[in-house]
Design the sequence.
């Protein structure tokens, strides 16, 4: 089975067990200001894990594209990727451990046909500080699963990962208990670090072992004496995680959720690598065609240029899906990460000697791998190529500018030209000139680069990061995004403003994105020209008038074709919906027609008059261009 076949087999497996298979959520989630990207399969599911009913029912399955920008610097080894697919299945208050664990192992062992003798499992050891019990129930189920397949699986307490490096694995052991840093799952890491309001719970991870030998001398020095499932050396690769989400963090402790949920996520790329029995995920069918194309373009082989080809393959997959989901390279937030991905890929392409028409050659290969299973990729194929080719052209101009500044930043010391770390940082920070190219250019010109350049560069980067984090404080606070009262108020105000814009400017106005924080709303919409002051005042007046009418806010679920068709519910440009959608209605008591009728996942206040608490009023702060034909409004309640 190749990766595409594994994906389809997984979705069929869970569909046969009563799960509704839904489309993936975009990489940039609407209404969640706490994260830049969809970084896990469970992120779009948080409202339902907390008890809100899902429109498709209690059993859901999907293949969710994910992006973790924090992993950019790790790319180049055999298993890390910034972009990946998470095969997920959820039970919202329906089945639990007794069904999930046998099903998941049935899929891995009987459908994918992985070798059971290379499969290992982990469970939560418990935490007395928070009265969280040891998950012996999952361990007992796993012992039976292995026994039914002829394997006598013994359990062992490991605790911390560091203890695993000291203790190692004893003969016959296959199921291991780890602490709340390894085997407790929420959107962050560690049971004690869990943020108030976040759902989480104990988890049972699944690992595939690629090599039965023990650590060599290098690995012993780097990691510890022995290998174990949670080791970082790569011999054990986590291929999936069964999260039994039954808690929510409240203050210093935990409360039980209204219902017990299952949140299972398996890395498609990693299962495919296990199927190949290769620890190199870049050899799977959703990666290797890119490598093959790079070998042809560069006339170099993968074995001698492994890191460069891995970086390109990963980064351009990520950039392609970001473009599919409407993101464009820029110097802010998601666009900045996208630009960094594209430019890092291009730097590696220069290393391979590929310097012309890079995107036009490689992006179609990526599109071909996904267009059958993700129709949006096929639909936006040409548009994506144009976006990425434009960034390639812009980066080449950046390089030319950087090279012109290069000589100006050299220090002349008694006839010897020197490029200090401060100059390398200035080239990077001011002109976007990649660090690797600065050092390479110095080598070509026989310019001296002091051994301390990296330290000096890193110190300046540290100062810059601290400045950026201070500036961004309050934008991405962690915790559950969009669930505070202020978030709900701004979600509600956004609905009212959307309809008011259509009333003032015309029905051509369609939402193209929004971002809600506790302090303001941001709304992108189609409109060909700048709004006049009079138009902005009219929109403000309509919104404040409707808030003052104390509209009742309710929602109902409808078939998508009915909601977007005869019912005329507003939505967002480019959004993909399942078979049913949730539609919010804002209606004044006694009125026949709602002022706002819009598809949305929430959350909202129950009555609009709540927006006027503390004497606040709706006010547009700024209206500006976002991109060609798209305007952007920032507004507040104050």
Sequence:
């Amino acid at each position: 089975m190749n990766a595409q076949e594994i994906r389809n087999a997984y979705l069929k497996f869970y569909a046969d067990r009563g799960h509704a298979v839904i489309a993936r959520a975009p990489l940039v989630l609407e209404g969640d200001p706490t994260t830049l990207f969809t970084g896990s399969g469970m992120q779009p599911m948080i409202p339902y894990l907390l008890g809100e009913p899902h429109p498709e029912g209690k059993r859901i399955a999907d293949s969710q594209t994910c992006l973790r920008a924090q992993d950019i610097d790790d790319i180049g080894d055999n298993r890390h990727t910034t972009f990946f697919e998470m095969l997920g299945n959820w039970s919202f208050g329906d089945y639990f451990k007794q069904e999930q664990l046998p099903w998941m192992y049935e899929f891995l062992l009987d459908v994918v046909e992985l070798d059971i003798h290379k499969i290992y499992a982990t469970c939560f050891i418990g935490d007395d500080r928070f009265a969280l019990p040891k998950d012996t129930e999952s361990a007992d189920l796993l012992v039976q699963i292995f026994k039914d397949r002829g394997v006598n699986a013994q359990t062992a307490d490991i605790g911390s990962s560091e203890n695993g490096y000291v203790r190692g694995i004893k003969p016959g052991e296959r199921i291991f208990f780890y602490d709340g840093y390894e085997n407790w799952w929420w959107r962050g890491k560690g049971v004690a670090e869990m943020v108030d309001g976040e759902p989480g719970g104990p988890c049972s991870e699944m690992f595939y072992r690629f090599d039965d030998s023990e650590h060599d001398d290098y690995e012993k020095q780097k990691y510890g004496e022995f290998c174990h499932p949670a080791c970082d050396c790569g011999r054990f690769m986590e291929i999936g995680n069964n999260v039994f989400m039954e808690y929510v963090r409240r203050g210093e402790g935990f409360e039980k959720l209204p219902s017990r949920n299952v949140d299972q996520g398996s890395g498609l790329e990693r299962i495919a690598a296990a199927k190949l029995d290769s620890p190199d995920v870049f050899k799977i069918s959703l990666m290797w065609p890119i490598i093959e194309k790079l070998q042809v373009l560069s006339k170099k082989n993968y074995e001698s240029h492994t890191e460069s080809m891995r970086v390109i393959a990963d980064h351009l997959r990520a950039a392609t899906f970001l473009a599919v989901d409407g993101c464009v390279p820029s110097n802010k937030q998601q666009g900045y990460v996208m630009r960094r991905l594209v430019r890092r890929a291009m730097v590696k392409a220069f290393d391979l000697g590929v310097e012309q028409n890079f995107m036009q050659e490689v992006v179609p290969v990526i599109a071909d791998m996904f267009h059958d299973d993700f129709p949006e990729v096929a639909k936006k194929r040409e548009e994506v190529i144009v976006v990425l080719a434009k960034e390639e052209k812009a980066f080449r101009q950046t390089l030319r500018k950087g090279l012109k500044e290069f000589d100006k930043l050299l220090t002349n010391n008694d006839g010897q030209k020197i490029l200090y770390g401060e100059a390398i940082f200035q080239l990077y920070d001011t002109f976007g000139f990649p660090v690797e190219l600065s050092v390479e250019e110095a080598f070509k010109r026989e310019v001296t680069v002091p051994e301390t350049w990296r330290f000096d560069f890193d110190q300046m980067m540290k100062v810059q990061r601290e400045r950026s984090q201070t500036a961004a404080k309050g934008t991405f606070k962690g915790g559950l995004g969009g669930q505070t009262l202020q978030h709900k108020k701004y979600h509600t105000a956004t609905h009212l403003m959307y309809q008011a814009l259509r009333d003032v400017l015309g029905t051509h106005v369609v939402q193209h994105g929004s971002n809600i924080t506790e302090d303001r709303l941001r709304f992108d919409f189609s409109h060909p020209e700048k709004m006049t002051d009079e138009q902005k005042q009219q929109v403000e007046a309509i919104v404040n008038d409707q808030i003052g009418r104390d509209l009742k806010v309710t929602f109902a679920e409808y078939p998508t074709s009915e909601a977007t068709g005869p019912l005329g519910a507003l939505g967002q440009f480019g959004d993909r919906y399942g078979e049913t959608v949730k539609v919010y209605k804002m209606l004044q008591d006694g009125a026949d027609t709602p002022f706002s009728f819009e598809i949305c996942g929430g959350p909202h206040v129950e009555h609009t008059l709540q927006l006027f608490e503390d004497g606040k009023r709706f006010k547009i702060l700024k209206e500006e261009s976002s991109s060609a034909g798209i305007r952007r409004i920032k507004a507040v309640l104050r």
Remarks:
- The chain has three domains: 3-283, 288-472, 485-637.
- Confidence is low (pLDDT under 50) at residues 471-482.
